[in-house]
Design goal:
The protein has 353 residues and is α/β, with parallel strands linked by helices. It is built from 12 helices and 12 strands. It is globular and about 65 Å long. The structure holds iron/sulfur cluster.
């Protein structure tokens, strides 16, 4: 994964998003939900998009796959999937790609599963929608996939309706459904948030296994840096529709340079970055109808400078020698490096795992 400026063509490159922007026109004004996100994703890689509720992480992915309401929505930028721009595809082309080449799993499987169809009927339909194969063959493939995602007694489970399964089982069914057609890209939106800790660990293990087995790329949307540490190769930190920091997983835990990222890390009890501050982030995210002028994070930032209230800092490389680590902050780079070293001397993805 890299930022907007690194647009070298690559055979392994699966998805390339350039300056994606989504704005919703409402009766109260325009909500700028995503304000210029850029990244690339290669096969077999896991990108985490992390941030608080309303930061734009889900809208980014829903925009890419054409699941935002077209009416009253302005979308710009590019989302090149295997070289084809998803944002310019017809609804029919997008329907063909969704569920086959790009699949999604959401926090609450009940909102995605049809409550009045058996699990088996839904799995068979998901395959036959994209492949001309017999019902019997689709059924066999479904049984195999249910077993693969760790569902005991798949023959029996095929006869169940969604409400007859536990939350963890339903999420496994969703993962099975998402993987039935060997997708190139899996988008997982808070896939473990509604689950208990044990089931959460099992589902994360499952996603990890599947990633290596299927060589799919994964975008993991989460507010949980623990989940990011478990699974991701690269991370984008979003806030109020903007990218504030972007890097590989080790850098984000060991040398984060944005005050918001320090705040998020400071909320993790296992890191306990600073016993005197940044244990939580004071204040609330801003309204996207009327975001603050300058840096969107300035009302909550303990480091804010006068310039922060007036000028929005661009997202740019931190060090001239590394174009992979980007941040949007006015603080002097040397100060940020010192503060990062002070706050994060014991932090690492390994500790969080
Ligand atoms: Fe804080 Fe200013 Fe940096 Fe924004 S630009 S994160 S307000 S120091």
């Amino acid at each position: 994964m890299s930022g907007a400026d690194q647009a070298e063509p690559s055979r392994a490159r699966l998805l390339e998003v350039r300056d994606l922007r989504t704005a919703f026109r409402t009766e109260d004004g325009t909500v700028r939900a995503v304000n210029g996100i850029s990244f690339t994703l290669e096969r077999g890689r896991v990108l985490g998009i992390v941030g608080e509720s309303g930061s734009g992480k889900s809208v980014t992915c829903l925009t890419m796959v054409g699941l935002v309401q077209k009416r009253r929505t302005q979308v710009s930028g590019q989302a090149l999937f295997l070289g084809e721009d998803l944002l310019r595809m017809t609804p029919r082309q997008l329907r063909d790609i969704r569920g086959r080449a790009i699949t999604m799993i959401f926090q609450d499987p009940m909102t995605s599963l049809n409550p009045i169809m058996t699990i088996g009927a839904q799995l068979v339909e998901a395959i036959r929608l994209h492949h001309r194969i017999s019902r019997a063959e689709a059924r066999n493939r479904s049984l195999k996939m249910l077993a693969e995602v760790g569902i005991p007694n798949p023959e029996e489970r095929m006869k169940n309706f969604p409400h007859e399964l536990s939350g963890g089982m339903r999420q496994r069914v969703m993962i099975a459904m998402a993987l039935l057609n060997n997708p190139d890209l899996l988008i997982a939106d808070e896939p473990t948030t509604a689950l208990d800790v044990t089931t959460q660990a099992q589902i994360l293990n499952l996603i990890r296994q599947l990633r290596s087995e299927f060589d799919s790329a994964i975008i993991l949307i989460t507010h949980d840096l623990g989940v990011v540490a478990e699974l991701c190769d690269d991370v984008i930190v979003m806030y109020a529709g903007q990218v504030l920091e972007q890097s590989d997983i080790d850098t984000i835990f060991e040398q984060p340079v944005h005050p918001y990222t320090w705040g998020l890390l400071g909320c993790l009890p296992c890191l306990n970055l600073d016993s005197t501050r940044l244990q939580n982030i004071p204040g609330m995210p801003p309204s996207l109808l009327q975001p603050p002028a300058g840096c969107v994070f300035h009302p909550r930032c303990v480091y804010a400078l006068p310039i922060c209230r007036e000028i929005s800092p661009p997202l740019k490389p931190i060090w001239s020698e590394s174009a992979q680590h980007l941040a949007a902050c006015h603080l002097d780079p040397a100060f940020r490096a010192r503060e990062s070293a002070r706050l994060c001397s014991n932090a690492s993805a390994e500790v969080v795992r």
